[in-house]
Amino acid sequence: MYGGDGDMPYPGITKHTCKISNEVKGKDILLIDDIYTRTINIDEDAIEALLEKRAKSVVFYSVAKTKPKSGSFSPSTNFSSANTDDLPF
């Protein structure tokens, strides 16, 4: 499924392409992705969709991240964590 101008991913892609069970309500979710790309917000979109389904919290891990265009790269694991009290939406 493609967004308005055909670019993927787009905001809301998780809700448009995935069915998230109501059983996530009140649960702590661990979301793991192989590569985190700062310019493509699919992970953030998935976290938002899980929290909208009332997950208690979502912890996100990625194994790697893309190399910045500036040429500097530090091979560190990206970690971000969120719960419904921490997010601005």
Notes on the structure:
With 89 residues, the chain is of the alpha+beta class. It has one domain (13-83). Helices cover 18% and strands 26% of the residues. It has two helices and three strands. It has a three-stranded mixed beta sheet, covered by helices on one side. The longest helix has 11 residues, at 42-52.
Strands of the largest sheet, in order across it?
1-2-3
Count of individual beta strands: 3
Which structural class do the helices and strands define? Answer: alpha+beta
* Uncertain stretches: 73-84
Shape: globular
Sheet having the most strands: 3 strands, mixed
Number of helices: 2
Percent helix range: 10-25%
Distance between the termini: 25 Å
Rg over C-alpha atoms, rounded to the nearest angstrom: 14 Å
Look at the structure and give the mean pLDDT: 75
From N to C, what is the helix and strand string? HEHEE
Count of structural domains? 1
β-sheet strand percentage: 25-35%
Keyphrases for this structure?
2 helices; alpha+beta; 89 residues; 3 strands; 3-stranded mixed sheet
Short description:
The chain is built from two helices and three strands; from the N terminus they run αβαββ. By secondary structure, it is an alpha+beta fold.
Give a topology summary.
Layout: H1 13-17, E1 28-36, H2 42-52, E2 57-65, E3 79-83
Parallel strand pairs: 1-2
Antiparallel strand pairs: 2-3
